Amino acid sequence: GTILGIETSCDETAAALVRRSSDGSAEILSNVVLSQISEHAAFGGVVPEIAARAHVEALDGIVRAALEDAGATLDDVDAVAATVGPGLVGGLLVGAMTGKAIAAARGLPFVAVNHLEGHALSPRLSDGIAYPYLLLLVSGGHSQILLVRGLGDYERWGTTIDDALGEAFDKTAKLLSLPHPGGPNVEKMAASGDPKRFSLPRPMKGEARLDFSFSGLKTALRLVAEANAPLSDGDVADLCAAFQLAAAETVADRVRRALARFRDEFPGLANPVLGVAGGVGANQAIRAALLAECMAAGARLVAPPLVLCSDNGAMIAYAGLERLEAGLTDPLDAAVRSRWPLDEKSAPLVGHGR
Ligand code: ATP
Ligand code: MG
Ligand code: FE
């Protein structure tokens, strides 16, 4: 079957077509992502009202482009999936309404997808890995280590007690007057910087629990920046490099512990896998640190291509496809949810905008 996936939970308007091939693999027929970055740039962050309006204006065209790129029409589509949470409610409503309208008009099943499930399953979409696996989700709103036991069966082993890692990158960029979004710009600056000139803390390093904390790192960086003001371009590059190294080592430390725990829980598993998801997974320094940890632990690192790390429609289509195949479709009055933890067992509340 072929499924249309729609993603509008934050500042990307995205649609994609994904098909289950006869050999059992998932095939991305198209994956169209329109970023609203320029619309929000002047405000240094995502403005919910601007995002919702931009989704309204763009989504029809993006869905059309996804069909066109796939060389398909709606006649070729067997089901429609849309992100219904978590995220900004205005954007979620636009995507959910559009998805439901297409499903209703064509008499197709509708699948209400959790955005985080889209991220969590993306290593299966890109590499076809088997359950169970360990997942590092590092995005703009989340920093989590999850045990992915199966579809809809997630155990959260660690989470951030303050900022998400992507948020920390974005705040660091803002502090250093780099353009939004911060992650890619911090990485770019870090490339020419000396990571050892300034020393920053490694929060939570060595602690047994698998949680993250990044606000102390952010504060330490601010103090160093203030002490060295005014900052030259070289100073900014060195600060970015120091921050990125601290972030990478912090994540690596958590992942080392998580891999050990994973091995304890699944001693018989021949090929333990660590999957990476979320926009920060695009960071090459973090990928390198994760690869080193995986090699040391005899595990395989599955880091999907960059377009599948940040927000996209293909991951939503794919999560929808797995749910559809498991018989998990949703009514057309499925509600959108601004908050929806992945390890919550219950299905989305129906009919009540909670
Ligand atoms: P969530 O999925 O938690 O709701 P989101 O959808 O906004 O959040 P993503 O689109 O997955 O998050 O990722 C965006 C985040 O990834 C931003 O914080 C951005 O700065 C960060 N990011 C993107 N590229 C890089 C990079 N190369 N290095 C570090 N961070 C990056
Ligand atoms: Mg985004
Ligand atoms: Fe996301």
From TrEMBL:
Cofactor(s) of this protein: Fe(2+)
Note accompanying the cofactor annotation: Binds 1 Fe(2+) ion per subunit.
Keyword hit for Glycoprotein: no
UniProt keywords, alphabetically: Acyltransferase, Cytoplasm, Iron, Metal-binding, Transferase, tRNA processing
Top EC class for this record: transferase
Cited CDD domains: ASKHA_NBD_TsaD_bac (cd24133)
Pfam families recorded: TsaD
Enzyme Commission number: 2.3.1.234
Reactions this protein catalyses: L-threonylcarbamoyladenylate + adenosine(37) in tRNA = N(6)-L-threonylcarbamoyladenosine(37) in tRNA + AMP + H(+)
InterPro entries in the record: ATPase_NBD, Gcp-like_dom, KAE1/TsaD, TsaD
GO molecular function terms listed in the Swiss-Prot or TrEMBL record: tRNA N(6)-L-threonylcarbamoyladenine synthase activity
Domain Gcp-like: residue ranges: 27-318
Positions annotated to bind substrate: L137, V138, S139, G140, G141, D170, G183, E187, N283
Subcellular location: Cytoplasm
Binding residue positions for Fe cation: H115, H119, D311
Keyword Ribonucleoprotein found: no
Major subcellular site: cytoplasm
Reported function: Required for the formation of a threonylcarbamoyl group on adenosine at position 37 (t(6)A37) in tRNAs that read codons beginning with adenine. Is involved in the transfer of the threonylcarbamoyl moiety of threonylcarbamoyl-AMP (TC-AMP) to the N6 group of A37, together with TsaE and TsaB. TsaD likely plays a direct catalytic role in this reaction.
Family assignment from sequence similarity: Belongs to the KAE1 / TsaD family.
Protein name as annotated: tRNA N6-adenosine threonylcarbamoyltransferase
